[in-house]
Amino acid sequence: MTPSSKYLFRFLFAAASQIPSTTFSQTISTAKLIEALQADDVYQTEKYGVVCTDLSVNFNENAFTAKQKEIHEYLIRKPDLRLHIRSFMYNRIGHDKIDKPDTLETAENYFELIKMASSLGDEQLLSELYRDYAAATKGSDKLYYLVKCLEIQDRIGAKYFRDISSTYYRVCELLYIVSDYNGSARYGAKGTALWSEKDKVDFLHLYILAADLTGASYLKINKPDSALLYYKQISSLVKQRIANPGNYRLAMAPDVLRIWEGIAKGGIGKAYLLQGNYDIAYSLLQQNLNSSTESGQWDDVANTLTSLAKIDEVRRNTSLALSKYLKAYSIALRSSKLAVLMTSAKGASNAFASLHQYDSAYVYHTQYLSWKDTLEKNTNRSRLDIVKAQVTFEQMEKVLQESQNDLVNQKRIRNAILCAILFLTVIALLIYNRKRLKLRLQTEMLEKEKQKADSEIILAQQQINHFTNNIAEKNNLITQLQTQLTDNSNTEINMALSQFVILTEADWQVFKINFEKINPGFIKRLKLKMPNITQAEQRIIMLANLGLNTKEMANASGVSSETIRSIVSRMRKKFNLETDIHTIAKEV
Q: Rounded to the nearest 5 degrees, what angle is found at the Cα of 509, between the Cα atoms of 506 and 512?
């Protein structure tokens, strides 16, 4: 029995989904997903497998779509070739869950990803891309790329690839289809050897499929002893499964177990047939025939009938052999199994000839030659396609190698440019350091000048404060004198005192200098705000800025309070002022 690869991989995926996700939980975050997809160590395949299992077991279309978008946005912000490749592989699993199967375009995308991944120099990632490309393509590249995948994974170590046994099975099956039975047996034996005893318990059905195909390959190359090992093992495992069903994780229906029990007997019977143990072989093959007939496994029925017919021929039961060959031929016609059609047609032709029915013998011999020719053409075409795939791959490798050489040359040029940049940078740093030293000296000088200016401002503030205090003291003195003189009615002294000038012109110049130090640009801003302002008006504004009242301004200027009020009133009209003079002074 050689089950289809599509069935096997569907079953493999269902079985793998039963593996608990210990690294990531059901609510795996996008950040954790990106971290797993970016892994580049020898455990990257395992980490990728875990997130794929999580996706399969806990699939939610909305969550999957959201994560797709988040990863896409991440790649826009931070381009990453490895993440781009892995996310495409990951997304294909999600698309399969929402009934978006692989297409020819998918295979072409994988082929482009293979080219991209080559630039990373990561054979492990390449091996996975080879496997996925083989699964997606409809052409003859399947076998070649799966073989290339296994070459890499064997070199890295099978323990790092938990699905490697399924890849071995796929290669085994494809080689069997193109009649390369030696290769099929070799890959089948390698693949089944990777199964642990625990795996055989957890995924018994998968192991039986692989062991059956390996045993069938050994039968084809006439190595019955090797075939016996596999079919006896299948028989033993099935009996254990029937006797102890509670020890197994995955359910197997009783009728499935009966089918496998019959197939195991059939395989053992065919091995005994090759060894010449006809009696034992016939009994076992008959049991296999009954089981396959009951379950409707018609391809296996036809194959088993030809084996029984061969024993009948040996026993010279020609008529019985002929009936079996004809029945096998009729069944094989329904499914166009070329190997069975060829074998049964040849057997029928020989049987008819032995019975001297030469016309019928000629008809079936002609059929035999026709089926043989068709089978050989199909096999040769498949093998030619494999050669073409190899040529295509080698051409691609040549192009990639040339690209790699170009990259190496570009790196050399880049390194030379970097060295030149480094050299120029050193020179620039030296120039920069010199300028920075010069700038530091200038800064120090400016700092000293600033400190000097700050000292002058402090001194000016002190002088202004002294000036203000002095005005206050003089105002008090004037008030006292005025009171005394008024009481004494000394008109002359009172008139002289009223005309007493507190600030001389020299005093005003010193005051103006100190005021500007404390309020840099004040007079300039004042002139901009009040064009054509007079010296007297400027002094009123500056005194108002110090917070002096009208009387104090009058005493400081040597005029009366009425004069100050008059000046302020004219300023209001002249400059269209709406606020009091003290507010205006502070705003300036």
A: 150
**Angstrom distance (rounded) from CA 439 to CA 115:** 55
CB 352 within 8 A of CB 318: no
The structural domains of the chain, with segments of one domain joined by +, span 501-587
Residue with the two structure tokens 């060894």:
275
d(CA 62, CA 85): 22
List Cβ neighbours of 165 (8 Å cut-off, separation of 6 or more).
191, 192, 194, 195, 199, 206, 210
Q: What's the residue count for the chain? A: 588
For the cut 50, the answer to whether the pLDDT of residue 315 exceeds it is: yes
| The pair of three-digit structure tokens given for residue 580, joined into one six-digit string | 């009091």
CATH for 501-587 (1.20.58, 1.10.10, 1.10.600, 1.20.120): 1.10.10
Q: What is the DSSP string of 94-162?
A: HHHHTT----HHHHHHHHHHHHHHHTTT-HHHHHHHHHHHHHH--STHHHHHHHHHHHHHHHH-GGG-T
Give the three-class secondary structure for 49.
Answer: helix
- pLDDT tens readout for residues 4-54: 333 334 334 344 434 443 443 346 889 999 999 999 999 999 999 999 988
Residue whose entry in the numeric block shows the structure tokens 């002249």 = 574
Residue among 182, 187, 183, 132 at smallest CA distance from 154: 187
Cβ atoms 558, 502 nearer than 8 A? yes
Burial class (CB in 10 A: 0-12, 13-18, 19+), 270: buried
* 55-102 pLDDT per residue, tens: 988 888 899 999 999 999 999 999 999 999 999 999 988 888 887 766
Q: CA 378: distance to chain centroid?
A: 41
Which residue reads 């929402």 in tokens? 98
Calculate mean pLDDT across residues 382-393. Answer: 64
Tokens of 88: 């495409």
* Distance, CA of 86 to CA of 529 (rounded, Å): 71
Measured distance CA(516)–CA(550) in Å, rounded = 22
Cα–Cα distance between 449 and 334 in angstroms, integer?
108
d(CA 452, CA 311): 122
DSSP, residue by residue, 311-365:
HHHHTT-HHHHHHHHHHHHHHHHHHT-HHHHHHHHHHHHHHHHHTT-HHHHHHHH
The residue among 275, 277, 280 whose CA lies nearest residue 225 is: 275
Cβ contacts of 378 within 8 Å, gap of 6 or more: 338
